């Protein structure tokens, strides 16, 4: 009942998995001035991070492991260009000049490609690994079950459910007078 | 009563010593020591001193050169001697009375079993009457007073002053005190329950109507009556009614009075007549007391008592082809012929007879109320046993409580149960008597309430409670031992041990293990009831545990706890044989623990307790509450773990680890982690390169 009432009360943000407009507004309020002030940097980072944007659009899972995998390495690939821009001075010209340099494209997109490669090549490897592990795990669990039976008897397996006494000081205390 | 007497005769009971020993003389194998002070010779029986339920053997005091001669009586193993008198009588050794000097349960070689052996002062002369049927030279007045009355007076006075009833005063239990036959002495009175050996002729009417086992302790008045009968028999030179049945004797006493029954028309000296009329008076209130007898013995003469005059009906009541002229004799006849009485009482004849012929309207009304019951009309159906029992009470309130074959004074129902315990029908009748609350009806039928009735009533209510609970520790066995303080435990296990006191129970069980551990359990219904009755205050939960036939573990623990309780109270401290006996039955208890480790520990503790012979240690080791709790908790945890493993195994075996979804999910996680690691390393290298 209380839960239902709480649901009925309107909140500032959107609930559940929808867009949180308040947070978005605050974020834009901070980010937009920064983007305007650092427009060359913003331009450079946005163009070189396109693989991450694509990954973001492609990966619709809640955990977004693909975004994390591609994004982290893509960020490493963007860093040399970013350092060069800041070295040369933040201007639109410098930004465009750097974008025409293939080395930085290769660095950024190559790193993102490594991320894509890791992400796509792991499943067969992991599958092979678990195939190898399965038998070992089964053996280990069966051994543990055997140990439990040895220590507590066959009843521990639940095949002899005649244990009805519990929580009594002694058996005679359990006897009604 | 003769039929009843035959039904309950003791001829079929196994006897100790005596006859069997005489057949196996020489196998005695040395003397038997009693209380360390007397030595008994099993190879030398003394048949002349045998009692109906005990057999006599030669004995001697070890440290008493030239002292009073003694002899031994080996008591019947199915009866209990009067132990309560054994501490009182020895101080009366100077009186003309065979007094018990020692009593002990000892191993009796001829029977290869333990028996109660009594040591008594030995009469130097013969019995006055060799046996109850024997004839002898009649005593004249002078001899009777000089040899019997005067010597025995001090003994009767002393017994009366101490409130002890002898209950075995009879001519065949009188002995000449010396070879010259100048004085008599009373024989012993402790080898069997009170009055058990008394023929009906020696008992007042109220007592003679009861079974021999149901005559009870009685009073000094009963002793004086028996003394009067003894005098009459000595004067007549034998029992004048020896050829009569018990029923005939009772009817003769009821119709003619005891004096006329025994003396008939024989002319006796006036002084003797005076004493006999006083002692044989059938009205207990009118009967001579010790003072009267003493005065008479000192020469002071009293007016002779007149015979009791019962109200005689104007017309007789015909029953069983005989005419009865008063209510008491009719009641007695009904009691002797129970089944015929049930059939006879189908109509209203009895009520009409009491109303019109006897002229006792109150009694007639009471009978009508009993016989018509709640229906308000008289049924022509035969009367129920319960109804007849109440009719007998209405006809003769002073008579014993009678119910089918059972007939006992109100304080002796327990004695009847004990003496006749081997008789299934008596056991059944006893249970019905208590269950039908006939005892209460008997009290209600009495003209007045006595203080002792309240105590008896409470006791019988308790017996009713025991009978309602049929589980071990209760039932008839419990009634038997509660009502009879010194009765031996009748467990088949202890048939040769003669255990009468709780202190003897565990040593007797210990002895049974001497030749290997018996297969039966050491506690059966008799052992349990005996222990509980003798110990007092046994925790109820032990008895409840003993009765848990549905839970073998709890029941076996109950057995150990009961015997441990006995050991704690009365010892002995070490009972390794009994502990081993109990230990062998502990397997299910140990198995009831789940943990293998705990079971191994318990097995070691069990062995330690068995070696130490400590039953309480054994009980506590087998029923350790904390250990059991740990075991339960550990077992629950293990069970949960086992179940979880089972679930995981099932998942794996169904391809859980190699399923594409699982593999893909795991791959994604691994990829993210790997990318994170790689990015960190790259960042580190780049930073070093940039600033390096």
From TrEMBL, chain A:
Domain of life, per lineage: Bacteria
UniProt KW keywords: Membrane, Transmembrane, Transmembrane helix
Chain ranges passing through the membrane: 25-58, 65-86, 106-133
Protein name, as recorded: Uncharacterized protein
UniProtKB/TrEMBL annotation, chain B:
Location of the region described as Disordered in the Swiss-Prot/TrEMBL record: 1-33
Gene3D superfamilies: Transferase(Phosphotransferase) domain 1 (1.10.510.10)
Keyword set, alphabetical order: Membrane, Transmembrane, Transmembrane helix
Transmembrane annotation, as ranges: 670-691
InterPro entries per record: Kinase-like_dom_sf
Protein name: Protein kinase domain-containing protein
Organism, as annotated: Tistlia consotensis USBA 355
